[in-house]
Specification:
Layout lengths: L7 H7 L6 H37 L3 H19 L11 H23 L3 H33 L11 H11 L6 E4 L2 H5 L15 E6 L5 E5 L12 H23 L8 H12 L8 H12 L10 H6 L6 E3 L23 E3 L2 H12 L8 H23 L4 H9 L1 H18 L4 E4 L2 E4 L4 H18 L6
Antiparallel strand pairs: 1-2, 2-3, 4-5, 6-7
Length: 464
């Protein structure tokens, strides 16, 4: 008996994902692409999780120890947290408030015995201030707990980890916390707190530890200093702006219309969000720089500028050739294969430290202006990519053009230089700087005469 086999076309029909072979092939290709994307995303996600451990590993041991102790304090307080109850003051606070109040009572008693009305008034003012300090301290503790213990906290991940540590030590039930009040002699001696501010007489200061293991002094009311919450309105504003650009490009593409990207509009929006590096940026704009760097809630896809930098493949080497070696007292010997400049290959640890210096506000090398510049470029690129994709252009081509930016800039420079020379200009503006066109006044005059002669030949009636 002859064996029969289903035809290839019939096999496609039975497992078909489309109404016809062409649609089946298209969907099969899409299925393969989606599968590869899912597998790739999984591998990338795993690599990022492992990198988190590497990032923590470069932290000094004193910092890791302090963070671990802080986490224990927060975990213990979180278990007993109830947002409906008035925050209770720990032993250190109760002790110092009792000590100060006892001191004020003795001063008041002395003023009453001597019938010193002026001294009596001063003491009563101090007692009223102490009462306000007690309430203000409770408010600080409440704010800290809301920021760290609520299930849907809005505290930005861009806040200082060192500041979070200080707040934890001050506002959690910390058995090691010590609090003292500053006296007039402390002010006279010029004592300052951790922020460099001169202490205030009768001000209450907690003694806590920084990430280097040093005991430092912080006002009990400054634990939440420079903390800020995510500005979801600004995040939504940016996403709306990006989506509008994509929609406009998409509509123009469908209508087969030419649609130029309005870069001026894009730059204005980015500058409005993040400010300038000329000292005019507001506190809100500085906070937005940190928020857009660290918080994945901004783009709502899990990505951040911080992660983008850590995963960037091109941070591989560093050339110190740009430095003026003649002005340096010590010149390191050239390494193997070096000719004129010392050259250092950046390994994985170097890369982690480099990124940390760029994005971590607690790093001694942190520069907010540098981060602002990078964040602005990153989120501008997001808008440009959205527009490019909406126009239906090949996504890889734009990235290729960015990689060839120097060559393209050179070609653009030459083009604008020629056009400016044709217009008889001695100089022309290119990317914010003036450059000579190569024209001289004599050449411009000759060019004008030649143009006049050509015009007269083409329009002889003008000479009559």
């Amino acid at each position: 008996m002859k064996e029969t086999k289903p035809s290839p076309l019939k096999q496609i029909e039975e497992g078909a994902m489309g109404a016809n072979p062409q649609e089946h092939l298209l969907k099969s290709k899409q299925q393969t692409d989606d599968g590869l994307a899912i597998i790739g995303a999984g591998a990338k996600r795993l690599a990022w999780e492992e990198m988190q451990l590497d990032i923590k590993s470069i932290e000094p041991q004193t910092m890791q120890k302090r963070k671990l102790l802080d986490q224990v304090l927060r975990d213990e307080d979180r278990d007993s947290y109830d947002d409906r109850q008035e925050p209770s003051l720990g032993i250190a606070y109760a002790s110092i408030f009792r000590t100060v109040l006892e001191k004020y009572k003795n001063e008041l008693l002395e003023a009453l015995n001597t019938k010193d009305k002026a001294a009596e008034g001063i003491v009563k003012t101090k007692m009223a201030a102490l009462k306000s300090t007690v309430q203000a301290t409770k408010d600080c503790i409440r704010e800290f707990r809301e920021d760290h213990f609520n299930n849907e906290t809005l505290l930005s991940k861009g806040v200082s980890a060192q500041q979070v540590s200080f707040a934890t030590q001050l506002y959690c039930n910390n058995p090691n916390l010590q609090i003292a009040n500053a006296i007039g002699q402390d002010v006279a001696n010029g004592h300052t707190d951790w922020y460099g501010q001169l202490v205030v007489e009768d001000g209450l200061y907690g003694f806590v530890y920084d990430f280097s293991g040093n005991k430092v002094m912080i006002s009990v009311l400054d634990g939440n200093k420079d903390m800020f919450i995510r500005n979801n309105l600004k995040a939504t504003e940016y996403l709306t702006f990006l989506n509008n650009f994509h929609s406009e490009a998409l509509e123009a593409s469908r209508a087969k219309q030419a649609h130029k990207l309005d870069l001026g509009r894009v730059n204005y929006k980015i500058d409005t969000l993040f400010g300038y590096n000329d000292g005019t940026a507001s506190t809100e704009q500085n906070e937005l720089v940190m928020m857009f760097c660290h918080d994945s809630e901004v783009l709502r896809d899990g990505s951040t500028f911080r992660r983008h930098l850590y995963e960037h493949p091109n941070i591989k080497d560093l050339n110190y050739g740009g430095f003026n070696w003649d002005t340096l007292q010590h010149v390191a010997p050239l390494g193997p294969g070096d000719t004129n400049y010392w050259y250092d290959n950046i390994d994985d640890v170097d890369r982690l430290r480099l990124v940390d210096a760029i994005i971590n506000v607690d790093s001694p090398f942190f520069n907010l202006n540098l981060l602002r510049t990078l964040v602005k470029e990153y989120y501008t690129t997001k808008i440009e990519n959205a527009w490019w994709k909406g126009m239906g252009y090949k996504e890889g081509k734009l990235e290729l053009m960015r990689l060839k930016r120097d060559k393209l800039n050179k070609a653009r420079f030459e083009k604008e230089k020629v056009e400016a020379a044709k217009d008889g200009m001695l100089e022309f503006l290119f990317d914010g700087k003036m450059y000579p066109t190569g024209m001289t006044k004599a050449k411009v005059k000759k060019q004008e005469e030649e143009a006049k002669q050509v015009n007269e030949k083409a329009n002889p009636q003008l000479n009559q």
